[in-house]
Structures are given as structure tokens and as C-alpha cells.
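Data follows
____________
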Amino acid sequence: MQTKGRDLNGQRSRRYDRFKNLHPKTKQNRDYSAGSDIFLTHDALLRSYKDGNNNANLRDLLYDDEHDDDFDRPEESVYKEILENFIIKVKLQSSKQIRRIGSFSTINLIVMATVILLICSVSLLYNKSSFSFFREITNATTFIDQPVDQSPLHKIIVPYLNQLFPDKVLEDEDLFDPRLAPALLLLYLQFHIIGTKKQLEQSFSIPFSWEDWVDIDAKLQYDDDYLIEWLALHSNDFWNQLDDFNNLSCETFALLYGCENNRNFMSKCSDLDDNIPGYPYKFEVTGPTNAKMKEPGRILYGAMYLKSKMPPPQQIYLLDVCGENGEGSLMIKVDPDKNAKRTQVLRNKEIIMQLIDWEVTYTKKNMGSFLDKGWNIETLRKRMSSVLTKFGVEKIISNKRHKDIDRKQTFLTLRESTDHGVVEVSSWDFDDFRWDEEQFWNDLIISSFNGEEGNYDGRLYTRLEESENFRIRKGFHPKYLYEADIYGITEGSHYDWRFFSGSFMTSDHRQSVIHKLSRTWLRFCFENNLKTFIAYGSMLGWIRNGLTLPWDGDIDVIVTMETLNLLARNFNQTLIVDYSSKDGFQSAATGFLVDINPAYYSRVKGDGNNVIDGRLIDISTGLYLDITALAWTKDYLREVQMHDKLKRLVDKDYEVNRIFALEGEIYGQTLMEQLAKLQEDHELIHCKNDNVYTVSELSVMIPSYFEGARAFFPQEYEKIIWRLYPKALTRITEPDHVFDGVYRLWLNIHDCPAMVNEFGTVYVNAPFGTCNNSRVIHEYNLTQDYTARHLSMLEEGDWESYKLEESTESKPFRIDEFFFLYAARIGLPEDELVSSCL
């Protein structure tokens, strides 16, 4: 049986066709026939069970001709009966436990009462009287929304509308719109500010739930295809354990997903005595594990942690939410005690209804008009900017006064007026990289003694101590950043284990996530005057055409040591939401979590498990951006083993000279003396993976663009890349790819077979610029203006003259996977969707 997700060619068109059938006008034609996707057959399966037709009809739903090949042995009927009963039990149990409030049973009444009390409690937190609260909002000054260019894709999908407005005959949307939580957060803030008619207080904080931001319920569902295949192969061996699958435990999970007898997995897994409401399993996971799993198990494992154990972020950073062009960003503190039971907050049905009522009253709209046009991010962002301008924020700082940031306060950060939002040639110096671990701990101890924590968040402060105590005992730090280790493939190493949603992504989908990651990171750093540049393989992609390499699974960035310490101090465990108007309907389409490794203070490699200093993680997919810092440390040459990277730093021809040097011992001694001189002159800087640079190489940072957003790069970029990848700058071929200098793109040779011979070697007279593959032409149309500008800038090299303003940034080249599904849902042709990027 083919593994789910393997067939990527044509996957989007098939997916588009499937969702087109769900257009409201043709929903009655929904296909519940055999072979349709399992989540589309879920309702039909339950309906079949309730009607008592759980024999032939159910068999038709579960098995098509492909499946029949798996059951051509004598026990066919027995296996089918087992599978049918198992799937029915799992589906019924899951639906009962996860189903939203739909009836007024005693339990549901209790739940509804609890929710109502929560809403009232939230209101009472900010007002003396809950009755006067809504009246103040009703009587508040009405802001007139500024008109925005709105396409059908701008309208945010709001759940429960058919339940909230049964008389309107509305369709129930089950597509999870990631923009809903960012939109409702803006409404939540406006609700409070206008209702209190005063500044946003420094002490203001909000409740939080990961279920508002991540589609956890979808991830908690069984992968039915995998289960059917597994049961068909193993049910005879584990006959007596089949009933346990209805209440999945640590043991049965390990059995299903290939990590049985793994001590590390079992140490992070705990069976439950009682069911947790809304949680369909009999166990929970308490932390990361290095155990390899089958991919469906990895998705479940991360979702279970998000559901029951994942701490909320310490704050939410609303990027570019203030000002017409995003001149300011708002930091809102999260209070975990306000939602100790981890229930939905923003996606709660009653709260949505309350915000809709407020929206209609506040904007003087009628309900029919609202239901037709709905909410969109750009309107809410502009309104938020107006509200902040009118009422203000109690604490405002500039982007260059990092030490004024108190992470325990709500504040607005604004760019310096002297910046004028311009990126130009910048200078870095030794102070940016200076690091003294002993001084760091002394300062931290003094702060702690004075009742402070150096303004670090409590979790990081605790982990700093735990990490150091562990190193004292073991000689190395415990691994902190974990990936989604999966059997049989290496792609899992590019995903954070907590937010992992599956590795079988189309190239377009992966590139769209990386596109958003890099643009948000660069905007965030620019907004906060943090020093960073795109590095390693990502820098190589920039040199070629200003884009990431199409086969790259993540983004690599370097920061100064001062910037890394500021990230840890001010922004660790911050959820960044990018409201940039440049992104159009894709604005705020996901969140990005800043996660700093508590071992960052130690600048030695150790056992190699903590060479990454931090990550910016896309919470929708788990893809991430790796953050590493460069530092000058006084004991580096004494602590590190001499390696080729160091020697190439002082002799670019080291590989040749080490072989042909007439006096090898003298040559080696000369290299050591030169390195010692660099160290003494405060020139030798390094990351924890022993990649080395000189301060002089990074002293001049030039302005450019990466993935369409403004960015800095070292002026000595060619020298740096040559040292890291000696042949990369002259090579036009990489595995399965060739660089077309006419299209200015890396092309997949499977898309353009005329470029290469049967051995993958590029023809001497390869017809560059002639490949007419539709994917290639589409990519060229999207990027041709941008790549032409990029290469022109590199050829001219007149860096001092470049003063890059925000208006010169490109709008997104990529479209998130969600919008392909959304476009199909509303009947928008795919070519019209794609044209939005042109």
C-alpha cells in the first residue's frame, strides 16, 4: 500500500479538485465514495454506523480496489471485521470526546456555565462593574474603518456561525483559518482599551491557549490509512491487545509507532487514570524524546504535548501593528494563571459571539453586512493603530533602548525617528561579539541576590541554573532543542517536535513557510535593532539570486553575541505575529515562537548537542530558522581542538600548502602564531560549532534583500562563502538541480530534462532559458523582477549609495498551503490565486 503523502506530483491539483466540491453551491455533491480522503468520509462513516449499515456500506467506505489487494488471504473477512469494528469504536470515542457543545446535557450545562463564568471573570479583571463594561463600549467613540482593498481571500473563516445564527442558513466552515486568533486578539485588545477609555496599562496581560493558534484537534486524530495498514500486517501477532487500541496507552502507542522498549520514550510517557475532557487518549507526554517513531506517531506525540503540557509563551509580539506602515510593534504579556485549565480562549464560541456583537455595535454595521464581509486582518490592524494613537500605551520605548525593556510589562516599541525606516551600510565592532561567561554569571547572581532575575523570563532563568548544574555533574549540557526524529527519513530533522505536522510537503509549501520565516525574522530584527545576517547555505542562495536554495529545509542566520543575549533577556518564549500590510491576505497567517537554548551562555561545543543557540519556529508546521551567535571568548584557543576551519581562516590555500609545505613543522607553527595574534587582537570570533570569522570580515555590513525583505550581509561575503564551500560559487549543479543563468533560478532536472544527459551532467550547450515546464515558468514570472534587481545590485556593488526603504520590499512570492485550500473552498480558480503574487 502506498504511504500517505508520497505522491507529490499532481497532489495540489487533486487536492484543489477535492475541495472545489465543497464550494457552498455544490456541497450537496460531496464525495463520500471509496478512496476519498478520510476526513471527508468521517461523517458518512458515523452515519452508516448509526443507521446500522455497518457491513457492506461501511466496507465500501473503507476499502477500494487498492485496499482489496491487501486482503487476498483466507482470513480476509476476519480482518475486515476487526478493522471495521476498531475504526468505528475509535471514531465514536473521539467524536464524543472532542465534539463541541451541541446539546444541553448536564455535563454540557456545567461546561457552558464554566465558560460563561470565565468570560465574566475576564471582563471583571478590567472593570469595576461587568454591567457597565459593555455599556461603556456601546457609548464609546466610534471609529470609522478605513477602506482596504479586499479580495475574497481576505475574509477570515469564523467557526460556529451556523450555530450562532441558525436563522441565517449559513454554511458551517470546518477549515482551520490560522488568521482567526491574530484577528480576535486585535479585537480583544480593542475591546479592553475602548471599554476602559484609557491607556493600555503596563500591567495588562491576557489568557492564552495553544488551541487558539494550532489545529490541535486535527493532529490528535488517528491516521486511519496508517492504522489500517498496520493492523492488516500485525493483528494476528497482537490479537489479545487489539482492544487496548480503543484507549491508547503508552505501551500500545509504542507498539503502533515503533518505539517499544525505548526507555527514553517511556520516561516521557505517563498513563492516565482518568479521561481528560476533550482529550481522546489514556496517556500524556511530558517532554521531548530522542526515540524514533513512525511519522503519524510523531504528529500525535507533539499534539499531545501541546494539548496538555506545553507552557504558553511568555508574551505575544504584535509586529508592525502600529502606524500606517508598521512603525511600531506591541508586546503583550501572557498570564498562564488566567487559563490554568488550558481551554480555548479566542476560539471559544461564546467569546466569538460577544466579539461579533461588539463589532456590529462599535462599527455601526448591520449583522447581514458583517456576515457577508466578515473580519479581515488589514482592517483590524488599521483600527488597532487608530485605537493606540487615540488612547496610547503606558510604556513606549525606542528600538535602540533594549535595556529599558521590562518583559513583565506591556509596551510599544517604536523605531527611532532618525532612522526614517531606512536600511543602509552599517558597522559592527568588537563590542558586538565580546562575551565573558564568568562575568555573565556574576551579574546574574548579583541580580538574583537583589531580588531580580536580570529581566530574564522565569523559565529561562530556572533552566540556566539547571543547565549549569547538569554541566557541573556530567561535563556537558543536556540537549535542549529537539527535532521530530522519524524512521526511514531524514526530513524530520528540519522540524520542531512540538509543532510537527508532517514531513511530506510539496516543494511550494515548504518554500512558502521558509519565505514567511525569513521575512518575519528580518522585520523583527530591524524593528528591534538586532544585528543579524543570513548565513551558510542560505547565504549561498542569496548570492545566486536573493532567494533560499529550493531544496533547503530551513534557514540559517547569525547574530552577534550582544543580540543573542538581548533575545534571551527580552524575547525568549515570545510568540511573534507578523501583521505587515505588505503581505496582503496572508498577513498574520501563522505565529513564530522564539525559543532560546538555555545553554547559550557557554560558547564551547561540548558534546555537540547544543551548537544551535535558538530557533524561530513556525507553529503551523514546525519548520524553523536556526539562530547561532558569534562571540570572542578569551580562552577559545585553549579550549578548542585545532581544526581545518581555523587554519583556513589564516591561510586560504591551507589544503594545498599543508601537503606541499617544505617544512611542515614550521608551517604549522606559523599558523598557530597567526591564530594567536588574531585572538590577542580581539579579532577571532566563533560559533559553538567552531565556524570561525574575524571581526574585520563583519565590520562592514551591506544592505540588500533576502526573499524580498531587507537584510544585511557582510561585504566580505565571497571570502566567507569560499572558505565554507570552496567550489560552490563556481558550480552550477547540485544534486537534482542546475542553475539557469537566464531564468536566474535553480531548476529541478526532472522539470527540465533537456538540460542534462542521462547521468545528470549538464550539456555543454545546454538550452538555458528555454525550459517550458509550467512550474518553471510560474516561478520565473514570480521572481524575475526581484532576481534581476538583486543581480544588478551585486554587479554594481555601490553599497554606500543604497538606502533601502520599506516601500522597496517585495510583496510575498509564495502562497501558503492554507490559501490553496481556502480558494478551492470558495470556488476561486487557482490561476486567479496565483496571479495575486504577480
